[in-house]
Amino acid sequence: MPKKAKELTATQVRRLTAKPGLHAVGGVSGLLLQVTKSGATSWVLRYSTGEMRTTASGEAYAVRHDMGLGPFPEVTLAQARDAAREAKQQIREGIDPVAERKAARDATRAAQAKRKTFEQVARECHHVKAQDFRSEKHRADWISSLERYAFEKLGSLPVDAIELPHVKDVLDPIWTSKTETATRVRQRVESVLTFATVSGYREGENPARWDGNLKEVMPNVGKRKRTKHHPALPWQQVPEFMADLHTREGVGARALEFAILTAARSGEVRKATWDEIDLNARVWTVPGERMKAGKPHRVPLSDQAVALLESLPRMEGGYLFTAPRGGELSDMSISAVCRRMGYTEPTTGRVVVPHGFRSSFKDWARSRTAYPDEVSELALAHVNSDATRAAYARDELLPQRSRLMVDWARFLNEGVPESAEVREIGEARG
Predict the structure, then answer these.
(1) Which fold has domain 10-112?
(2) What is the mean pLDDT of residues 245-257?
(3) Which residues touch 244 (CB under 8 Å, ≥6 apart)?
(4) InterPro entries recorded for this chain (predicted)?
(5) Which CATH class name applies to 118-223?
(6) pLDDT tens digit string along 311-322?
(7) Which of 329, 346, 96, 138 is nearest to 232 (CA)?
(8) For 175-198, what is the HEC assignment?
């Protein structure tokens, strides 16, 4: 029978710290104070679970295990004895305390791994699947669409906590207005969550799955008139575009520049005539027959818009922007300017179109200004609510719209050198 160690007091234990080695402290069999040559001290419980092994000579021996119980004096003698007694109780119940501790540690690590955020997993997925993309542009578009539309609402959420309402919250704002983009975003969110599942970061159904899932709660855009998506530049890039456009000659380039400055539809600009312009009042009045709402639309003119108009050849009753052979400018003339300039929408890779700058204007107004939403809606002649319709009928908010268009022109002018002058239409026809 092994000799029982004397039960030491706390004072006696402190005296042992000057002697390197393993010292039995008594109270619980196998409880030792370990002192290293460097002077570090810690508690160790030496125990056996009853497992037997055989030496090369055939002698049987009990396998010995050492279990750390923490540093001394941070863990006191009394605390070390309590921990040792708990471990001994586990051994009596057939549980190896070291194996149990390792299993608990592994479970904690696994739980922590599962708490990765959606953005972390999305970027990991993007990196792992880098070779699967058909081009570098596709690879960049894939992550940029999530950055633009998904990360704001999903990015910081633990990936294992994401459910259908979270995904729906991402898709709702763009489902009917940017259907193609929303579809791609949904597919990419689904891919990220599938990757998370196979990587062990989450369990259960994929809340971004379409069939039998989101399909049941999202509007069926296939059964309604689809809102046409017009490729557009992010509002942050429009000043750069305007600086480039400003250097180009031709009637098409000037018409596009005027359309962007006024946030007007290209058809309204192409058909605009001089008798609609009041340079003194700085207002362009588009007749009701050319407006989707059927009502005359007054467009405030900024300094930049007025300067552009003053640079044009003036013909009373004639078009502002006359085609090279006379008459109304064709829609293709303005669209061709965009095609030649080659700017593309980051999320789709499609060349931007004139109408897309109305979306850029709206996004800028929402992101960079404090104007109420109805002010920019009226500037775009969007009459899609009772309140906006009433304000439109009474021609309200014109002063606010004037200030909005001045701010828009100043923003657009950030990319244009101060010394630049309005380009003449010249011989080239853009």
Answers:
(1) Double Stranded RNA Binding Domain (3.30.160)
(2) 94
(3) 341, 415
(4) DNA_brk_join_enz, Integrase-like_cat_sf, Integrase_catalytic, Integrase_DNA-bd_sf, Integrase_DNA_bind_dom, Integrase_recombinase_N, Phage_int_M, Phage_Integrase
(5) mainly alpha
(6) 998 765 589 999
(7) 346
(8) CCCCHHHHHHHHHHHHHHHHHHHH
